[in-house]
Design goal:
The complex is a heterodimer of chains A (154) and B (753).
Chain A (H helix, E strand, L loop, with lengths): L2 E5 L2 E5 L7 H8 L18 E4 L2 E4 L12 E2 L1 H4 L7 H8 L9 H14 L5 H8 L9 H16 L2
Antiparallel strand pairs in A: 1-2, 3-4, 3-5
Helix pairs in contact in A: 3-6
Chain B lengths: L2 H12 L3 E2 L2 E4 L1 H7 L17 E4 L2 E5 L9 H13 L6 E4 L10 H5 L14 H6 L3 H4 L10 H28 L7 E3 L2 E3 L5 E3 H9 L27 H5 L15 E7 L7 E5 L1 H4 L4 E6 L3 E6 L2 H10 L1 E4 L8 H11 L6 E6 L2 H10 L3 E10 L11 E7 L3 E5 L5 H12 L6 E4 L14 H11 L6 E4 L2 H6 L7 E10 L2 E12 L1 H10 L23 E9 L13 H18 L4 H10 L3 H14 L8 E10 L2 E12 L2 E12 L6 H21 L4 E2 L2 E2 L17 E7 L16 H13 L17
Parallel strand pairs in B: 4-5, 9-19, 17-18, 21-22, 25-28
Antiparallel strand pairs in B: 1-2, 2-3, 3-4, 6-7, 7-8, 9-12, 10-13, 11-12, 14-22, 15-20, 16-17, 16-19, 20-21, 23-24, 24-25, 26-27
Helix pairs in contact in B: 3-7, 7-8, 14-15, 18-22, 19-20, 21-22
The chains are: A alpha+beta (154), B alpha+beta (753).
The structure holds FE2/S2 (inorganic) cluster (2 copies).
One FE2/S2 (inorganic) cluster sits at the interface of chains A and B.
Amino acid sequence: MGFVISVNGRSHEVDLPGGVPLLWVLRDELGLVGTKYGCGVGACGACTVHVGGEAVRSCQMPLEEVAGPVTTIEGLGTPGTPAAIQRAWVEHQVAQCGYCQPGQIMQAAALLGENPAPSDAEIDAAMRGNLCRCGTYERIRAAIHAAARMMREG
Amino acid sequence: MGRLARYTRRAVLLGSAAVAGGVAFGYWQYRRELPNPLRPAPGQAVLNPYLIIDAEGITVIAPRAEMGQGNQSTLAALVAEELEVPWDAVRVLHGPPAQAYYNGALIAGHRTFRDGDAGVMQGLAEAAGEILPKMLGMQVTGGSTAVIDAFDKMRLAGASARETLKVAAARRLGLPVAALAAAGGAIRAPDGTVLGYGELAEEAARIEPVRGVALKPRAQWKLLGRSLPRTDMVAKCTGTAEFGADIRLPGMLFATVRMNPKLGGGMVSFDAGAAEAMPGVEAVLDLGDGIAVVARNTWLAFQAAEAVRIDWGEAPYPPATGRIMAEIARALDDRPNSVLQDVGDVEGALSGAAESGNATVIEAEYRVPYLAHATMEPMNGTALFVPGERLDIWCGTQAPLLARDKAAKIAGLKKDRVHVHVPFLGGGFGRRAEPDAALLAARVAVQLPGVPVKVMWSREEDMRHDFYRPAAIARMRGAVAGGRALALDAKIAAPSVSRQSMQRIAGFAPPGPDREHVAGAIDQPWAIPNYRIAGHLADVAVPVGFWRSVASSFNGFFHECFLDEMAHAAGRDPLEFRLELARAAHAPSAKLLETVARMSDWANKPAGTGRGVAMTWSFSTPVAEVVEVAESPDGIRITRAWVACDVGTALDPGNIRAQMQGGLIFGLSAAVSGEISFEGGEVEQFNFPDYDPLRMNTAPQIQVEVLENNHHIGGVGEPGTPPAAPALANALFDLTGRRARELPLSKTFDFAV
Ligand code: FES
Ligand code: FES
């Protein structure tokens, strides 16, 4: 047995029961701990990754249902070569404790992939599933607008 | 090199003076002299163990937990400012637990608006009474004290190091010290010679540190007073910041725990048969008052833990919310534990007002529920036990020394054989001041000698095994006449956080008045002529702890909602009414009310909205907030909020604004829907759907102004929280005419979700 999944452009063979959520495959098996556990029930967004380019809650996706390439926060950019959205996050000094931010950034990146110039209302609608107990919402919104500008202007 | 080796090496290095070709300034000196930590001699420059210089650069030890408040960046800036190093050359480490990192500000207590008055600044020193010596080892992050405590200490550490490096350079160059200048991380000589700090570090390590260095005046600050990029920001935006939950050790196993949901009850028996047969399960451990499941990954451990059948003992408190609240209400009839504020003649004023035809007397009872912290990162700890030799614990804790000392008992080791490593905290809010997660990890590790194990709590376990913000009840009476406040009388009952916490730390609770229990109600900057605050302590064994702003979180609500009721009873605008009371007590506080009035354009409220104002002084910082609500087809929305705070000296305005926003949202979240209730002795809330904070679409837009009229530095992590709930409740009254005297407000109003 064993499942083969592609994460951040690398293929991994995973020997685990098919019901194990992608979140724990990433964190415990592959050591990609940038993706966080917050609730395990799809209510907080801390575990958000991209599967086939779409934002999904990895705590709700069993290993056996992973049907596309996975991108995690580690695959989006690195401290040396951050993605535009990560640069916007740094510029706006968004993070406080930072624990929710990988999920916020992955959710926002998916939004900007579909909608290069979201309004405040569209941002609210896309981001409402991502909790931040530190209350960074104001700066998240500003950073999304800034990232949208950066991406439009190249 | 593996992580364990890395951490071990770091811990060893920090314990000695010389650091692989570098130097830890001050550490050896501190150990040798042990000056009285509470009262350093006036004018004495005390070097502290805050700085490592090696060939790679400058590392500042910021010995406070970074749980989102940005304190590590501000602490590092204090050292960097005096040391004269560029901001981007500074790295930050939490460092090992040590007595040297005691939190003096937490012991000294906070400032009130009557700055300098005798008897109003005793804080925890008073509460702690004779066990104060035990507390001197407290390396605690809490009480919004990190920067207050460090403001002089860490600047002096930087200044002393700079001057010592100059002496080293002077000797090498054969020049007088006065001819040299420090700038940009180097010592510069008149002839253009530049010696980097790294080159001089070893030499400097052999020199007696220079003392009595004068600190730079504010006008010369280059880093302090500016909004600096946080040192942890890039890591936190790229998923590379390491939280407790992210620790990975070679050969590590993954565990979870299930402890009695009837909090404090024991375990009668358990049956692990089904769990042990599940895939990936390595062991089910008996912890006495619960079980741990050790597995190949966290999720398998979660599943197996659910499959263990457990017969729990009963809770040591009344099993349902109604009876718990009745217990708290009963405390109001007991003699008060404290009457720390008793100005004028309250009884005389109230009875006189009742008899007079021109005065109005009002009475009201307010209630708030228990609350969970619900930090974004659930509780966890990782540990490795080598029998008879050492125990290592990796845990995002606000109290590493406490964790170390208690873990040493669990492992049967001397304290110096226990090493606590503190990574980033995914939120703390006071929850991580309790050492329980670190100690559970230690208890599991002791049963698995030689095997590193991470103990991750499920969100449900975290939500249902908190040290909760206590429920509280207040009976308020007030009198107004001629548009002015005559009297305010408050009786406040709740279980005591400080007593319970001291009981857990030290084994007994100090007698005497509990000042923390009435914080946020006493010492408020209002000139009310007859003004009394009585604290009543209820004896309920539900675990309670420090929740962002502690008792000010409920006292601010009681006081500021009732002051609003008094304003309306007096026929006055609530902001004008407050302004008059504040002007006569404390000008900088009055200025805050004027500021939020201007920011919100208070006099010109948009149609269809309601506005509420509140101001609370807590943790040495007064904060005024205006909250705006509006009707919408989906229910009531919290549309905008304005915050003005006075922190005396704003060391990092951008970070302070972030903390005020976060504090406000934290308070609003609890006010709208936060409630922990009990049935059958168990907490009824399990996860975010049952305890849902504000989200992007329900949070208001927020503007913050930071003022500097106070003469002392104030805290910033907590003071934004207390005025949030009353400002919202007052706004809802303004919008609907309904006065809610019970939280959460979702019991009374329909909010848009
Ligand atoms: S952990 Fe997946 S949504 Fe919370
Ligand atoms: S930054 Fe702490 S939870 Fe979002």
